[in-house]
Design brief:
By secondary structure, the chain is mostly helical. It has one domain (about 30-280): MetI-like (MetI-like fold, Orthogonal Bundle), CATH 1.10.3720. The chain has 12 helices and 2 strands. Strands 1-2 form a two-stranded antiparallel ribbon. Strand 1 (about 120) and strand 2 (about 125) form a beta hairpin. The longest helix is centred in the N-terminal third of the chain and has 32 residues, at about 45-75. Mean pLDDT is about 85; it is low at about 1-5 and about 285-290.
């Protein structure tokens, strides 16, 4: 049986256990209309949470990519101070939990009066300090992981490419931008797509900051007040469906991007869309393995 088939069979006992719990005669009263309404007929709060999740993920990922590129260039630079600084950055933010970083940047800096995260007015919208701190922490944390991904992509390009560009009179910076990084993109983009997929889910950690109406925060509030109070099973199952929808849509887009990048690679061209989503239908490719 294919690996994907075993994965499906492995989830059946869990699904059976869930259904058995739903049909039991415990004290918990299930209201499946709450789940259906949250998924099929979402209100404005849920839709706002979905859009905010997407916006936070995109902005934080962009910050992470920029920091990752600069950090990777620093780690491959000839100057020792740059290598040390970039190495310390990666070591620190990969070695400490993201949850700790979130609370440190928002609560720690605010209590110490180093930076209190005042609201920012941008395009007529007020961006709260919690959202600012959350995006900043997610981006800085992501930059440490992107640094390793970008560095692996740069090292995958033959050293002779850089030397040939320098022999033509290009500066190191210009050679990197025009010769090395475009070739490294083929190695960088697949794991970058995986990182963004993870970012969509990691935004749920912003619940610790309070005033961030992200998707998970929205469902937490619905469980705490209003007519849907004390229905965690239905609400958080709906939240899981929404996150699954977002990551599936991105997986489809990522598969299309990877397919364009892998033109000429028969191993990737023979894999169908379902195989790409489930991770079946071929041997693991080093380009798509996560760096975490």
């Amino acid at each position: 049986m294919a690996v994907g088939g075993w994965r499906v069979l492995a989830t059946l006992p869990l699904a059976a256990l869930m259904l058995a719990g739903c049909s039991g005669s415990g004290s918990y009263i299930y209201d499946w209309s709450i789940f259906v309404d949250a998924v099929v007929r979402p209100d404005g709060l849920i839709l706002t949470g979905v859009w905010l999740t997407l916006i936070i993920s995109v902005v934080a990922q962009m910050i992470g990519v920029l920091l990752g590129v600069f950090s990777a260039l620093g780690r491959t630079a000839r100057l020792l101070p740059l290598r040390v600084l970039a190495g310390l950055y990666v070591w620190l933010f990969r070695g400490t939990p993201l949850l700790v970083q979130l609370t440190f940047f928002f609560f720690g800096l605010s209590v110490a009066k180093i930076y209190t995260w005042p609201p920012i007015e941008l395009f007529g919208l007020s961006i709260s300090g919690e959202i600012q701190a959350g995006v900043f922490a997610l981006g800085v944390n992501e930059g440490a992981y992107m640094s390793e991904i970008v560095r692996a992509g740069i090292l995958a390009v033959d050293r002779g490419q850089l030397e040939a560009a320098r022999s033509l009179g290009m500066t190191y910076r210009l050679a990197m931008l025009r010769v090395v990084l475009p070739q490294a993109a083929r190695v960088i983009i697949p794991p970058l797509g995986n990182e963004f997929n993870n970012m969509l889910k990691t935004t749920s950690l912003l619940v610790v900051l309070g005033n961030v109406p992200e998707l998970y925060v929205t469902f937490s509030r619905k469980n705490g007040s209003g007519p849907t109070s004390f229905h965690p099973f239905e609400l958080f199952l709906a939240a899981a469906v929404w996150y699954l929808l977002l990551t599936t849509i991105w997986s489809l887009a990522q598969a299309r991007i990877e397919r364009r990048l892998s033109q000429g690679d028969r191993r990737d061209e023979d894999r169908g869309l379902l195989d790409r989503l489930l991770g079946t239908g071929g041997k693991p490719d080093a380009r798509t393995r996560g760096v975490r």
